[in-house]
Write a structure and sequence with these properties.
Keywords: FAD, Flavoprotein, Oxidoreductase. By secondary structure, this protein is α/β, with parallel strands linked by helices. The protein is built from 14 helices and 21 strands. It is elongated.
């Protein structure tokens, strides 16, 4: 072993929400951690996210008059994933979510006072944080333990196995021109994120989401390092075909990374022909698929003043007013004028809205079967009160929502379903929780929850 090699109890790769959750959990249990981050700044995709976490049965929900439960959360997660998700991982999420919510608060993460309903949720379940501040709070708590050593600008290159037992014992890392080993007596937790910035991998798994059709947004370091390191040792993967873009990203706005989901407040989605093409209440991942299949991979969310006024400025994806102030929402006094501004046939758009309003009155959407504003929540509303608005929208791939096969203790599994001893994973690099679609808040939620589970399992093995 080189004199520059480092030794610790647990090695964690990736300093986002999952990585800091794993590191802090281990440090609180009295163990030393080396946390590797290849970028100069910590946070990764977590810090760039919408700041939504999906929890159920919290004090914040009760304060907002929301009746929720772990079992309803479990049911919703399974349903929105179209039962393609791993039931065991969904159960692990649900069984640990409430404790993790309290743990995050104790670690200094501050939740906003407002609760909102979003994709895949039967009741209001979005718990909001400033994402960058949340990661900084976890980092500060980890630093105060005196047991977490952060190595920024340090890239993990390969996993290291013990030559006798075959157990994963650490990583080979590179910092500047120096290459060295970082060895952990309890193994390695991969919390290295997904691969939104690896065009080759995106094309391999979902060629319909190419660079011409979709927008790709995420931490600059998200190129699949952890995924490939584990695959080299025979790790299995799942849900790769379910990589999807989130609907609602303005196609030409490069200053704002967030989507707007006015459809979840009652807007309809229309294509370049002025026609609806989807049930707007479904997961915004499925809405992303539907949008990508439309001409030019871009559509419009169309709504009226009453829907505009129902927007929620406490939840980024529902903050219609903010997008309007940024000049991204198109406004007109009449539907005919709006159609001219967005260059769709005026007679078609008017007929689309008239037909939809009739379905709302009748209580049945004969075209696409829409029954609610979002998932199983909210009564449909008509689009009839001017002025009228349109928000140009495409699909943005914010995360890959697929990855390594793990068991409920976050052991990484090989292609035969056997654990790779000493190797654990958490966060976006993990597959199996989301399945075919996605509930708002479950990605950031699983980063914190699964990071803690991974650390506990590594220290217990």
């Amino acid at each position: 072993m080189s004199t520059s090699d480092l030794k610790t109890t647990l090695v964690v790769v990736g300093a986002g929400m999952a990585g800091f959750s794993a590191a802090l959990q281990a440090a609180q249990a009295g163990h030393d951690v080396i946390l590797l981050e290849k970028q100069s700044e910590t946070g990764g995709s977590s810090a760039m996210s919408g700041g939504c976490l999906a929890f159920a049965g919290t004090d914040l929900q009760r304060a907002n008059g929301v009746n929720d439960s772990s079992e309803l959360l479990f049911k919703d997660l399974r349903e929105v994933g179209k039962f393609e998700n791993d039931e065991r991982l969904v159960r692990a999420y649900v069984d640990n979510q409430l404790d993790t919510y309290e743990w995050l608060k104790q670690a200094g993460v501050q939740f906003g006072p407002h609760i909102e309903t979003s994709s895949g949720q039967s009741v209001p379940r979005v718990h909001n944080v400033d994402p960058a501040d949340a990661v900084r709070a976890l980092a500060a708590s980890a630093r105060r333990t005196g047991r977490v050593r952060l190595l920024a600008d340090t890239r993990a290159l390969r996993l290291v196995r013990d030559p006798q037992s075959g157990r994963v014992a650490g990583v080979t890392a590179q910092r500047g021109n120096e290459t060295f080993k970082v060895l952990g007596s309890r193994g390695v937790v991969l919390a290295s994120g997904g691969f939104v910035h690896n065009a080759e991998l995106i094309h391999r798994y979902v060629p319909q989401y190419n660079e011409e059709a979709a927008v790709f947004i995420g931490g600059e370091g998200n190129v699949g390092d952890g995924l490939k390191m584990a695959q080299q040792l025979g790790a299995d993967c799942r849900d790769m075909i379910y990589i999807k873009g989130t609907y609602g990203k303005h196609p030409v706005d490069e200053t704002n990374h967030h989507s707007l989901l006015a459809v979840y407040k009652g807007a309809i989605a229309v294509n370049q022909d002025g026609k609806r093409y989807v049930d707007e209440s479904i997961s915004y991942k499925l809405l992303g698929d539907a949008c990508i299949a439309q001409p030019y991979s871009s559509t419009f969310q169309v709504f009226d003043q009453s829907i505009f006024d129902s927007g929620d400025n406490q939840t980024r994806i529902l903050d219609i007013e903010r997008r309007h102030e940024e000049g991204l929402v198109i406004q007109a006094d009449t539907l005919e004028e709006l159609a001219a501004m967005i260059e769709v046939p005026a007679d078609v758009l008017a007929d689309t809205v008239k037909t939809y309003n009739g379905y709302v009155d009748a209580g049945h959407d004969r075209d696409f079967g829409r029954e609610h504003l979002v998932h199983q929540h909210g009564e449909l509303v008509k689009i009839e009160t001017g002025p009228f608005y349109a928000y140009p929208s495409t699909a943005a791939v914010y995360g890959t929502y697929c990855g390594l096969c793990v068991d409920p203790d976050m052991h990484v599994l090989d292609v035969y379903g056997e654990p790779l001893e000493g190797l654990y994973a958490a966060g976006e690099v993990v597959g199996g929780l989301h399945g075919a679609a996605y509930m708002t808040g479950s990605a950031l939620g699983k980063a914190a929850i699964f990071g803690r589970i991974a650390a506990r399992a590594a220290l217990a093995d």
